[in-house]
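Weekly puzzle thread! Below is a chain. First person to post its structure in token form gets bragging rights.
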Amino acid sequence: MSPAVRGVGVDTVDLGAFAASLAEPGTRLATAFSATERRQCRERAEARGAGRGAATARADGPDARTSSSSSDRSDPLARHLAARWAVKEAVVKAWSSALYGSPPPIAPDLLVWSEIETVCDAWGRPAIRLGGEVARQVAATVGEGARWHVSLSHDGDAAVAFVVLEGQGSG
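Winning reply:
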């Protein structure tokens, strides 16, 4: 069997709505990002001139106190986190399309979003890293050698991610 495209996923995120959700106390987004994702997003935002403001506190964890600002729409940290949220959604869509006709191996309400990570190399190129139950279930359903290809971007008021899942063909 040769490698084949098993699934494709795409997702867009409205930056204003995402920033507002990120600012909500108790939001699920507080635990959706790994420490590596939060650190890399914070570093990218700071490199582009953003200080450690309210959005940085929001991304640091579920207990962080925050205040919403009128500049959330252009908040560099929220922009980077939104693109990574789009990747998480696109990964689930690509995986789901690979499993067409089969029930999801993880119930949607039991999915641990932080187990789907976007990590960047030293040159800022993104890759997908899976952990925990998500990694185990992907290996069980698609195969150990599954490869993920990802492209992400943000422009204007939107972030977008495109993901391709490659694995052994089924025949």
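Puzzle host: Confirmed. Bonus trivia for everyone else. The CA atoms of residues 108 and 148 lie 21 Å apart.
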